[in-house]
Amino acid sequence: MAVTIRDVARRAHVSVATVSRALTSPDLVRPETRARVLAAASDLGYQPNRAARGLITGKTGNIGIVVPDLGNPFFTGVLKAVQARAMQADHAVFVADSDEDPVLEAKLVRAMAKQVDGVVLCSPGLEDSRVHEVAGVTSLVLLNRRLPGVPAALMDSAGGMRSVVDHLVALGHRRIAYLNGPRTSWSNQERRRGLAEAVARHGVHLADLGPFAPRYEGGLQAADLAVAAGTTAVMAYNDVMALGVIARLRDRGISVPRDVSVTGFDDLVYAALSSPGLTTVAMPVAQAGRTAVNLLLDRLGADGTGAPQVVAETQLIVRGTTAPPRT
């Protein structure tokens, strides 16, 4: 038989109302009383009914996350971290996939707002004004998108791209290609910012190609254009695209890295398992996911009045797909 709040009240020798206050508004009861209630609840294995608690506190105990593509392993890593941190805070997570559609992103946030306390909006393609609009509907935290006035968990994509160019130039490459991701992607804009800085500093030739779909098929399509541009190194928007590039080059009899060097971005598990291993930039997705939930919980709390933007560092991971160009 399920343990009820009345059972806890009897064990702690307090009223049902006191148990309710101890569990939902601890500042309204004496510390020793709350400790006695918590001990009784723990001994009995009592689990408060989430719906009933929501009627008392006005909170659902749920948070939402909207991602652009559940088929992309990058966002799987983000989701695992978000769920793990949310569970630690006794929150459930609702997940939605916008399928890279900015209009659907806004609709999903508005729909979720009725069922959750706040939303993590991951790599949104919405225009700035639309992001501000949905931020007025529910407590909102951005992941991998910077916007004044909205809390955000960020990853230093620009710094990661600078590291990639520095690495390729150190190997001797002077003609490099960049395969752009989606035009609306803030991450792609940040990569381009770091790329422009590094290219100008080193004085190398850049073939700026795309945009391409940030998928394996996008890499298959982009590879021929990079070869036609006469480049000796190809930097893909992400790891999945880079693997498509390598596959297409292999089909054409072009060896990686002997003939062409290839780099990715994200450091998905496939990057280390591919042959040769993919040189890439490690994105701290787990750290960013945890940070996003922490920012949202802070915003839901009494002190959640600011809009902090926390940046996590990226790291170049050198593996077997980069080498000096053939002379």
What does it look like?
- The chain is α/β, with parallel strands linked by helices and about 325 residues long.
- It is about 45% helix and about 15% strand.
- It has 13 helices and twelve strands.
- The protein has a six-stranded parallel sheet with strand order 2-1-3-4-5-11, with helices on both faces. A four-stranded parallel sheet has the order 7-6-8-9.
- Strand 8 (about 235), helix 11 (about 240-250) and strand 9 form a beta-alpha-beta unit.
- Helix 10 (about 215-230) crosses helix 11.
- The chain is elongated.
- The model has no long low-confidence stretch (mean pLDDT about 90).
- Pfam families: LacI, Peripla_BP_3.
- Keywords: DNA-binding, Transcription, Transcription regulation.
Brief rundown of the structure:
Residues 3-57 form the HTH lacI-type domain. This protein has 327 residues and is of the alpha/beta class.
Average predicted confidence as pLDDT: 91
Task: List unreliable stretches of 5+ residues.
Answer: none
Oligomer: single chain
Read across the widest sheet, the strand sequence of neighbours is 2-1-3-4-5-11
Q: What is the total tally of β strands?
A: 12
**Total of DSSP H or I helical runs spanning 4+ residues:** 13
Looking at CATH, the homologous superfamily of the largest domain is: Response regulator
Taken in chain order, the helices and strands follow as HHHHEHEHEHEEHEHEHEHEHEHEE
Number of domains: 3
Instruction: Provide the CATH top-level class of the largest domain.
Output: Alpha Beta
For the sheet with most strands, the description reads: 6 strands, parallel
**What is the distance, rounded to the nearest whole angstrom, between the alpha carbons of the first and last residues?**
78 Å
Rg from C-alpha positions?
24 Å
What is the SS-derived class? Answer: alpha/beta
* CATH fold annotation of the largest domain: Rossmann fold
Q: Quickly give the CATH architecture of the largest domain.
A: 3-Layer(aba) Sandwich
Helix content: 40-55%
Strand-residue proportion = 15-25%
Coarse shape = elongated
